[in-house]
Structure to design on (730 residues):
């Protein structure tokens, strides 16, 4: 086995989740992630945990969603039973075809997401430790327009880093955002958006819930978001790409939207529920070892010189105890390129210009 | 997709398990069974059930068992949680390598089986509907010494039959065994074994808990088994073959054993627990459409002109309410060829000679 697979498994069980004796562990992974699954079962066993493998998604889930009467089904109780007794959930992405659900009508995907929402909420609320990671598979390499072996190098380079040094670097931004009230993001001619983050923690995300990681994120106060934003990178939802998504916010809600391609998909996403028309996350990518877009949000949103905003559900740890939390069946990240013609303002002070932070060499106020 | 895969899925959800609206279904299947898994998710969805895929066994389970301290682990609570809320369990076998656990020490496999025993008991006792079936995979074809395509034909020929006609044929034997007390099986020079089945039902097994099926089975009263038996077909346990297993019973317990090859594996199996040294099942194969041995018990034990006996756990439905039930972490079937130099006696009457039943043409008393 590629020793990098073993190293990946070690980072997951020791750094991201800290598996201990007696831990009940779920490994959510498909057939494409067989090698990582084998390595995980070994490392989990060495630490005295008890693993069970579950597979969601892929071809089977597509055929289920196409066949079932979505009005008649309820959240699966046996899956709830599995999760209730689990201490750790390791979610491994790996696809032989990332377009596997591209022919499922968006409204069916949304209805299914709503059915599964209690499952998602359960994971976040029940003190289940979780991590989302990527095993390099041919479908993901193809989406990134890379060879499978080239993509494999890219993935492991991004995963196996000096996470302590990265945490220290990011802490400088956390210290700016944590006590702050107002954030304004300006880029190009169409993006000028402001929001309050008062009382919401800025999370220093290194190898923890995402692997790779390398971002600082927080949650906007849902009703505070005002302005417009044009996203630079395509938003991929269930294998379909929304290009050039544009959103206009008033009192925190999307009041207008358009897209350069597949606008109907964006319309469908925004129609999922009330929370899908509000921002749930503001994130700032700070991982300069991720050096190209691969059409995979787990990596893209961590890239240096980018900002991302997610519509839908907020991550629990980024919401202050006294503050409202945006709820939704979805959480969809969208990315802005901040490398030129852009700045981030915090409480009226510019803290990043054209991708360079105030605490970095080369910053000019 | 091969239309036989779709037909297989239909038989599983309609005939073996009768999936209805709201049923929580577990599909236990590995990467090799991807096509059947996709077809099952579709059929389950059409009937309003909710499927979850779980994978046990294979490479990952081997690496877990090799790594973990088996003295320190307990039955996985999250798996119990999943099973407790499940209505139906569909267990699909398919291997790319049937020898995947051949390098795990037999005592580790036994210890693991004991840890998992509560899971197995739960399935049998909690009114969970279950079925065990086979998807044709290259490893199973290789074990059968067949091409993958030839094996695929063999599997679907065995599965897609006129099960009503088969049931009628088998009912003739059920009518003999159901009211009977004593069964004696004699074959060759080394097999002469007697047991009481008084009060234990004879089960007419067609497409229900096994697919394919085609056998009539019951349970011996555990303490009643007396005599000797030499099994003709190799017994395969975790990828290792015990050839020519021989058992001698006194007061229902194995008091002597030997084997022509891999006797240590047999010794290990018999040492699992007390129930592993007693018979849990007497079965009579009646499916003449299974016309060759494929080193796969799911098929071999159903073959016409054979008898099988299992050491270990009895199947619940074959034990009368007033009667003792043999319990064990294992259930291991072993096969006798009855095609020549053999007979079965029920309450002193010969009911099968050289493979031909009393109710068939060609029987000579």
């Amino acid at each position: 086995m590629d020793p990098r697979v073993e190293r990946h498994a070690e980072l997951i069980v020791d750094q991201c989740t800290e598996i201990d004796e007696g831990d009940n562990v779920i490994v959510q992974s498909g057939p494409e992630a067989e090698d990582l699954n084998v390595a995980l079962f070994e490392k989990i066993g060495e630490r005295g945990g008890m693993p069970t493998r579950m597979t969601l998604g892929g071809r089977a889930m597509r055929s289920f969603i196409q066949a079932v009467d979505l009005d008649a089904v309820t959240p699966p109780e046996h899956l709830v039973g599995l999760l209730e007794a689990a201490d750790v959930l390791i979610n491994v992405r790996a696809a032989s075809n990332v377009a596997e659900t591209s022919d499922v009508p968006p409204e069916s995907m949304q209805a299914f997401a709503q059915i599964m929402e209690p499952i998602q909420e359960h994971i976040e609320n029940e003190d289940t430790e979780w991590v989302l990671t990527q095993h390099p598979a041919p479908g993901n390499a193809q989406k990134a327009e890379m060879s499978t072996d080239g993509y494999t190098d890219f993935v492991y380079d991004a995963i196996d880093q000096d996470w302590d040094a990265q945490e220290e670097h990011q802490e400088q931004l956390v210290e700016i955002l944590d006590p702050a009230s107002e954030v304004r993001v300006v880029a190009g001619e169409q993006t000028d958006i402001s929001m309050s983050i008062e009382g919401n923690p800025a999370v220093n995300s290194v190898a923890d819930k995402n692997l790779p990681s390398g971002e600082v994120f927080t949650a906007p106060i849902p009703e505070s978001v005002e302005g417009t934003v044009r996203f630079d990178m395509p938003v991929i939802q269930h294998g379909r790409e929304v290009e050039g998504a544009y959103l206009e916010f008033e009192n925190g809600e999307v009041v207008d939207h358009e897209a350069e391609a597949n606008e109907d998909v964006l319309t469908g996403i925004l129609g999922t529920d009330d929370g899908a028309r509000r921002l749930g996350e503001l994130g700032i990518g700070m991982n300069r070892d991720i050096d190209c877009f691969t059409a995979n949000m787990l990596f893209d949103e961590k890239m240096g010189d980018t900002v991302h905003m997610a519509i839908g559900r907020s991550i629990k740890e980024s919401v202050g105890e006294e503050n409202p939390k945006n709820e939704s069946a979805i959480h969809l990240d969208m990315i802005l390129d901040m490398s030129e013609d852009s700045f981030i303002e915090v409480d009226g002070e510019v803290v990043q210009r054209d991708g360079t932070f105030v605490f970095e060499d080369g910053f000019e106020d």
